[in-house]
User: Which sequence fits this backbone?
């Protein structure tokens, strides 16, 4: 067969110019779409930064340490909200980490039949799917009234410390911490479960082979091998807890004045934004943008730290 | 140690059946046979490692120290403390070399001088010279062959009475293999060793006794079922076996 | 078989029998019990939340709930029809923006430049974007669109709400596409190139279809998540007691309705908040189970 005859049968053997253009164009298109991530990120930063500039100029760094938030006198300081953000998220993690890691161990380490393990895993994952605002609704009408006697007891026993110095009267920091626990628990459980599942089976066998008990192996061998991923997950959860808005807003009480007590109403940056942004104008908007910038920087550093922790602590196995 | 009519199944499928065996003390016994014949399964049954595989069940008796290891009252953890195991792939713990050895001893209630035990175990496993200067480094800092000898040292640090080895050299290069084999010769003075190997030369080099396993398809079953063909002195297995199948296998006609 | 020649004095030898009184076995039982308690605590909130949402919200389910507007404060009855429509509209806008951008960006990351510096940078940026609190995306869209009255001089609008939601969806869609495509075996691509297919044809006809399941699963989950988001909508889409009036006007959504009505001192509004939670949770859990089912069906 001659070359000419073959070309008749495969009419597209010479690539038409259009096809090359499509090919190239598609590549450039996806490149632009990928670049959207960077653009959006940059745009968020610029918008928030620009919005907060006025307040930055006016209040400077005292914004971080002052707890005055007075729209009438136009005095703004975000200390109450920053304190609330840090305290609620750290306390929530303190409670959620043992619960989440314990649950993850319970559903990976062959302690119970596999059908039950999967059921628990599924339920924890579905918990992550429940919208924050629904959890907030539940917290207002069900959880907070249910735990108030417990908080009251804490006040009676520990009322002499500043952290429990006020009488619980409904919304407050403590219920917000509890609802945050509910929200970050699925993240920690899911990541810890993946990390534990990735521990090679040889390592488990090695541990059992020298006669460790099941929990001897879990605590001494398996958990240390998985610790870097678990720590990364904990940091991610911390970032999530800091930025969590709806449920916290609905139950924390949105106090404008500072109280160290966990039983008193408090505030977080996110809930302050949710509450005041719609009705604010003038310098208040700028002050809120400034606070939003602080929240962004907080979550950003926590997330970057999370990635660093995973790389730094990762053990080869 | 003896196996009396042992049949091991994964779920509904029998992996190996009707094994009778009397494993002599203070000797090296090798299990050989084609893949899928159940030799590793039998090995793992000796210290109840099969418990960790879901759906694995055993019928028959495995008698150690006058006890049926599958008696309901037996604590598998206790069994594994007295019958140690070395695995196919080196699996040091994510700890320092020193801790890799010390961990096992500590959980076994060791009351003596830990430094001395670590050195003695590493010496016995012929890896002391290579890692004496880096005891505080991670076990992963060693080469594959060194890691495997570290795992052997870890197993002997708990002073088990029997050491099971599941193809301990299959992931190693020839030089490391040679070193591990030397280690085995060293160890057989004080321990009973049972080794699974797919390398017949290795069986000839290290073992006093050899068991040949084979697998055959059974009617009505989907997979093959392993069984013990022949068990006797290594020399006899390789030079004048009783069974034709053994002769075919050791002379390289199949498998 | 008894002990061989090794020194015995350094280790205690116990009988092989299981002894539940040993400290290690007591420890084992203790830790197993502790883990069981933790797992029970972890499961408890889901059970309680579902129970209350189903009971409190379920008893209000009626046809009027889907067809009526919410009542004025102080009045009884009414429904959440406008909020249901609004949630669908806003989520749809968000999907129309985030899906093409996200899938396209994911294709670039996985197919064109999986290890280049730009791709690494975009992946990092994507992780950062995924970590941006949802309220911030509301603040962003407020500053960019609402305050500046960018769209036809309108401030709060359904479109602004949809854009705010799409910012939240984008990282998830990119990540699932990127990772879904990476799961496609490279042989498949090489095979297509081997018969002279162009990159475009290979991606659209070979790799993208074979990565359909993981991408679809991720997308369904991302949409479900967006449908329940509130924080980005409070001051972008705002709320409206009326039926939707086009994309450039404020619109009601179920999530904002729950937020607004939960903190009102009127029982009728509180009840509608529960009813909206019921509808929202059923939709979202349904989507989650659907996604799970998709991925399980194709695995077999």
Assistant:
């Amino acid at each position: 067969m001659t070359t000419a005859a073959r070309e008749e049968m495969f009419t597209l053997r010479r690539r038409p110019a259009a096809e090359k253009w499509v090919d190239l164009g598609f590549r450039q298109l996806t490149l632009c779409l990928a670049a959207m991530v960077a653009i959006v990120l940059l745009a968020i930063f610029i918008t928030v930064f620009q919005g907060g500039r006025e307040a930055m100029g006016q209040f400077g760094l005292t914004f971080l340490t002052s707890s005055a938030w007075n729209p009438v006198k136009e005095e703004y300081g975000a200390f109450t909200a920053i304190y609330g953000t840090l305290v609620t998220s750290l306390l929530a993690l303190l409670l959620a980490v043992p619960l989440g890691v314990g649950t993850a161990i319970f559903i990976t380490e062959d302690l119970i039949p596999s059908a039950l393990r999967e059921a628990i895993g599924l339920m924890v994952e579905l918990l992550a799917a429940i919208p924050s605002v629904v959890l907030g609704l539940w917290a207002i009408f069900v959880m907070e009234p249910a735990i108030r006697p417990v908080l009251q007891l804490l006040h009676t026993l520990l009322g002499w410390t500043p952290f429990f110095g006020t009488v619980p009267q409904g919304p407050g920091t403590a219920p917000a911490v509890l609802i945050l626990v509910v929200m970050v628990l699925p993240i920690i459980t899911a990541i810890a479960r993946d990390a534990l599942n990735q521990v090679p089976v040889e390592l488990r066998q090695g541990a059992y082979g020298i006669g460790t008990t099941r929990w001897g192996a879990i605590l001494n061998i398996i958990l240390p091998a998985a610790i870097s991923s678990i720590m990364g997950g904990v940091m991610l959860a911390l970032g999530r807890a800091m930025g969590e808005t709806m449920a916290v807003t609905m139950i924390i009480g949105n106090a404008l004045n500072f109280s160290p007590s966990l039983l008193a109403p408090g505030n977080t940056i996110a809930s302050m934004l949710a509450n005041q942004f719609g009705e604010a104008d003038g310098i208040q908007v700028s002050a809120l943008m400034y606070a939003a910038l602080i929240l962004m920087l907080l979550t950003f550093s926590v997330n970057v730290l999370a990635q660093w922790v995973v790389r730094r602590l990762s053990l080869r196995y | 140690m003896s196996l009396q009519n042992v049949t091991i199944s994964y779920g509904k499928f029998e992996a190996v059946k009707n094994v009778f065996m009397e494993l002599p003390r203070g000797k090296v016994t090798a299990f050989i046979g084609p893949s899928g014949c159940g030799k590793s399964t039998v090995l793992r049954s000796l210290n109840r490692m099969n418990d960790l595989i879901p759906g694995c069940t055993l019928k028959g008796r495995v008698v150690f120290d006058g006890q049926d290891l599958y008696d309901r009252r037996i604590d598998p953890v206790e069994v594994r403390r007295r019958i140690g195991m070395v695995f196919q792939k080196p699996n040091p713990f994510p700890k320092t070399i020193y801790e890799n050895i010390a961990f096992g001893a500590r959980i076994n209630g060791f009351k003596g001088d830990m430094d001395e035990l670590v050195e003695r175990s590493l010496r016995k496993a012929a890896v002391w010279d290579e890692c004496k200067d880096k005891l505080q480094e991670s076990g992963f800092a060693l080469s594959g062959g060194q890691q495997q000898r570290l795992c052997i040292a870890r197993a002997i640090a708990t002073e088990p009475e029997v050491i099971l080895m599941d193809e301990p050299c299959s992931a190693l290069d020839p030089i490391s293999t040679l070193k591990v084999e030397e280690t085995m010769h060293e160890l057989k003075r004080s321990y009973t060793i049972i080794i699974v190997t797919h390398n017949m030369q290795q069986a000839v080099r290290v073992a006093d006794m050899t068991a040949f396993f084979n697998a055959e398809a059974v009617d009505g079953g989907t997979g093959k079922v392993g069984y013990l063909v022949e068990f006797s002195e290594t020399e006899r297995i390789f030079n004048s076996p009783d069974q034709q199948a053994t002769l075919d296998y050791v002379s390289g006609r199949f498998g | 078989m008894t002990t061989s020649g090794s020194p015995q004095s350094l280790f205690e030898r116990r009988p092989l029998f299981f002894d539940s009184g040993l400290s290690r076995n007591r420890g084992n039982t203790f830790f197993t019990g502790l883990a069981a308690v933790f797992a029970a605590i972890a499961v408890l909130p889901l059970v309680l939340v579902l129970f209350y949402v189903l009971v409190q919200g379920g008893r209000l389910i009626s046809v009027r709930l889907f067809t009526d507007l919410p009542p004025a404060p102080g009045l009884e009855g009414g429904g959440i029809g406008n909020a249901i429509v609004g949630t669908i509209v806003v989520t749809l806008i968000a999907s129309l923006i985030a899906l093409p951008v996200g899938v396209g960006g994911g294709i670039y990351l996985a197919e064109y430049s999986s290890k280049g510096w730009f791709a690494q940078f975009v992946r990092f940026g994507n992780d950062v974007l995924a970590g941006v609190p949802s309220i911030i995306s509301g603040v962003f869209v407020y500053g960019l669109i609402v305050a500046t009255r960018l769209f036809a001089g309108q401030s709060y609008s359904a479109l602004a709400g949809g854009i705010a939601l799409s910012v939240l969806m984008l990282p998830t869609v990119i990540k699932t596409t990127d990772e879904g495509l990476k799961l496609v075996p490279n042989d498949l691509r090489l095979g297509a190139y081997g018969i002279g297919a162009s990159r475009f044809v290979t991606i659209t006809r070979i790799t993208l279809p074979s990565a359909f399941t993981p991408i679809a699963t991720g997308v369904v989950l991302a949409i479900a998540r967006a449908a329940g988001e509130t924080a980005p909508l409070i001051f972008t889409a705002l709320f409206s007691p009326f039926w939707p009036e086009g994309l450039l006007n404020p619109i009601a959504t179920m999530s904002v309705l729950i937020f607004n009505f939960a903190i009102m001192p009127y029982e009728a509004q509180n009840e509608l908040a529960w009813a909206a939670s019921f509808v929202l949770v059923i939709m979202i859990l349904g989507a989650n189970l659907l996604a799970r089912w998709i991925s399980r069906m194709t695995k077999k």
User: Anything to note?
Assistant: The beta strands of chain A are 69-70, 75-76. Chain A has one domain: 59-316. Chain A touches chain C through 91 residues (CB under 8 Å). Chain A has a mean pLDDT of 88.
